[in-house]
Amino acid sequence: MDERDYTSLYQRAVAGPAPQQTLTQSEAWLGRAQRVIPGCAQTFSKSFRQYVRGVSPVFLERGKGCRVWDVDGNEYIDYVQGLLPNILGYAHDEVNAAVTAQIARGHSFSLPHPVEVQLAERLQRFVPCAEMVRFGKNGSDATAGAVRAARAFTGRERIACCGYHGWQDWYIGSTTRHRGVPGAVRALTHPFPYNNLPALEKLLTQHNGEFAAVILEPVNFAMPAPDYLQEVKALARCNGALLIFDEICTGFHLGLGGAQKRFGVTPDLACLGKAMGNGFPISAILGRADVMQIFDDIFVSFTFGGEVSAMAAAMKVLDVLEQTDALARMEASGRCLQDGFNALAKLAGLHPRFECVGFPAWSLLKFRDATGQDSFLERSLWQQEVVKRGLLQLVTHNLTAAHDTTAIEETLRAYAATFKTLAGWLADPNPARFLEGPMIEPVFRVRG
Fold this sequence. Notes:
Number of helices: 16
Shape: globular
CATH class of the largest domain: Alpha Beta
């Protein structure tokens, strides 16, 4: 689409709140969950508090491709996709067939299975740092295992981190969600800002010779500054620390070799997960052979680490990504969405308050107030209106190979109507009066 197409789309859009959908069964299930499940979800980002309650579904019942249906039968184009894992979309026929075939032969064995070796060999081909591989189930398994390996290999304890790295004590103790983490553990993890090399250099200097590793998401929604990743690697090496890339999110959405291949920087260790199994639980730690050999001595061992139904899923995911144009289609669809969001925001007079940034296949929606500060009010109003127009969304476009032209066109029509609506609401002296439920709550809170 070009600017004329977006202009025509915006002109045809009808402003005003979309009609509410029936959510009776979602609310009923929420009532039951409140009696038996703390927080009513297993993941903070899947909680009802991340959506405007009363207009958004709380429980989903099924999914196929890029679409899901809630327990009331309402249909949505899903841009959350289980928080990024479903790179091929829900219920992918070939992946499901591979898992079903493996389950029929058993999937949690008493000794290792050949597919463990086969999958490790394939990852070794794709990922630059992957001389050896260990598997887990969650991203937190991988990052925690990598950190333990780095500490054992270097004989040091401190960790410098940048980005989000999971729920384990070593990392979450450095955030506002640190209750239950001993102070002694919290003191060993030191966050540093992205794209700020002097800040990392100062941190490493302050505790010279004490850092086991520098772990970071090599890229998130901001591009690395020229030579930034290379300089981070050089700083880590100069200080005797290992470099760990957390590629739980970027490992496949940025291509089969992840960010390390795209940017030409090979870390000592890397962590993969999410999209590797198309929603089946699997993660991996990959890295230099001499470092990975430390797993012979440290204890990273759990019953389901070698469960192979998810490995069968991962093998089929790699088949599809390697042998088809799935990644290219994701890129094209994501670019259309990104361009469309920004063009429609400009037509509504809301850009750059509303802006889509990052990579096409995994981009971030920014919601700012009139002063340029991140705003939960703007985000809540946006999510309220897009969900009533059939889009399930947090703050990212988590693209899948199943987001076809029809889905993208439907999405852009919903965006046009939502932008036209919010253009009027945000000109009101009290835009909060248009909220139809409680405002979305942050998962992490700003420290007082």
